[in-house]
Design brief:
This protein is α/β, with parallel strands linked by helices. The protein contains 14 helices and 19 strands. The chain binds zinc ion.
Length: 436
């Protein structure tokens, strides 16, 4: 069995891993490197394929071009896991498999990039079901919690044992949407014997466990209660794909204010969630563009304290709605005392930090009160990873979704758990191959 570490082994993002057994290859994820994509998107949302490839926004999959790829499996619908599918998948002419919500988002990406031909390859697979890929390979998706609906652990059943791919996840035993992780199924896989296990390590350096979304729900309730004590407009921003969080924001509002949702990515993810009955958007105004929303923003101007505005811009993205309002490009102008709640952390990359800094500076210069970090992470932390190693008991561990420091930090955790570097825990980099 060969494992190819194609992307996400030298950076956070750009995830892509492949497994080859008896000349058949299965790909796990094809993601964007968001840090490189965001600066390119300042002028236009859709960047041509050749530029995405040249700039390293998508993984370099050339090592697989002559291989027999039998399936592309997407773990969940974050862009750093599925963004590159419309750019790279066409040549493989194989099923693209994921849970229904993830498929719904891939459909949007395909439509944006005008790659209709890929629609015929999309294959929905619900968690708990097993799909026969070939004579020798079976695929199973196992329910896991993360910061997006229908995230999965991918299990590939082969004649040489099971390969598991867990990128990304958290262990949330009191989720506010959907069920807790399917521990029973994971224990079953462990019993059958997992030969190789690939796992994310985005927050491996934090020596704790990640708090449940239930905690975020309580934080939000308090944040909105306090914000509403003042007679100002309240804006809130979060990750557009975090449907559980947006549901919690709507619930925390308790019908007190009219909710207005504006932003391209918010519209995409919320409509997909609504189509699958994952969220109720009754009485909520939803629009993908600021310009289209100018008439409602005018109403907000007339009576700001009647509204809660959910807007894009949690990472300070220059093309987001919050940035557009801060730059006075839309019909709403911030008043002194308006409040902006960030239900998010700033992703620690230089571009995000600079963008967020600029937005926050601009907001404050207009007298806006900024409340940061009303948030819990969607990623496992060190002690969650330890729990997972003990639960799955894989023979070989390959940390992924991180730079060298993060991968090494995961490897040192694995060695605390009895694994041996270079023998049973393997630090890979992009473009690497390991034979197990
Ligand atoms: Zn993710």
């Amino acid at each position: 069995m060969k494992i190819y570490s194609i992307g996400g082994y030298s950076e956070v993002g750009k995830n892509m891993t492949a497994v080859e057994i008896a000349n058949e290859v299965v790909i796990f994820d094809m993601g964007y490197f968001m840090e490189k994509l965001i600066p390119l998107q300042e002028n236009s949302n859709i960047i041509p394929d050749d530029i995405l490839i040249k700039e390293g926004v998508v993984p370099d999959d050339s090592i697989l071009h002559k291989k027999k790829v039998v399936a592309i499996v997407a773990s969940h619908a974050h862009l750093d896991h599925i963004g590159a599918i419309p750019v790279l998948a066409e040549r493989y002419k194989c099923p693209i498999i994921a849970t229904p919500y993830t498929i719904e988002i891939i459909k949007h990406l395909i439509a944006d990039r005008k790659k209709k031909i890929l629609l015929g390859y999309l294959t929905k697979l619900n968690t708990g079901n097993i799909l026969k890929l070939t004579q020798n390979l079976k695929l199973e998706l196992v329910h896991i919690t993360h910061s997006i609906p229908q995230a999965t652990l991918i299990a590939l059943h082969t004649k040489k044992g099971i390969v598991t791919y867990l990128n990304d996840y958290k262990l949330d035993n009191t989720p506010t949407m959907g069920k807790k992780p399917d521990y029973k199924k994971m224990m079953k896989l462990a019993k059958k014997s997992i030969v190789a296990h690939i796992e994310e390590c985005v927050r491996i350096e934090e020596c704790e466990r990640t708090a449940s979304e239930y905690i975020a729900q309580i934080m939000l309730q308090d944040a909105l209660n306090r914000a509403y004590q003042e007679d100002t407009a309240v804006f809130i921003t979060t990750f557009a794909s975090h449907i559980a969080r947006i549901r919690n924001i709507i619930e925390a509002n308790q019908g007190k204010r009219k909710i207005v949702c504006i932003g391209r990515s918010l519209a995409t993810y919320l409509k997909a969630a609504k189509n699958l009955n994952l969220i109720n958007l009754n009485n909520i105004y939803l629009s993908k563009s600021g310009k289209e929303s100018n008439s409602i923003l005018q109403k907000v101007s007339d009576k700001p304290s009647n509204y809660l505005i959910i807007a894009t811009g949690n990472q300070g993205e220059p093309n987001s709605i919050l940035s557009a309002i801060a730059k006075q490009e839309l019909e709403y102008k911030f008043n002194k005392g308006d409040q902006v709640i960030f239900s998010s952390f700033t992703i620690p990359s230089p571009i995000n930090q600079a963008n967020k800094h600029n937005l926050e500076k601009s907001l404050k210069s207009q007298g806006v009160r900024v409340i940061n970090n009303v948030h819990v992470s969607g990623h496992a932390k060190r002690e969650d990873h330890r729990d997972m190693i003990r639960l799955l008991k894989p023979k070989h561990i390959i940390p992924s979704h991180g730079n060298m420091e993060k991968l090494a930090s995961f490897a040192s955790l694995a060695s605390e758990e009895g694994y041996i570097l270079g023998k049973t825990v393997h630090i890979m980099s992009n473009g690497g191959i390991i034979e197990i």
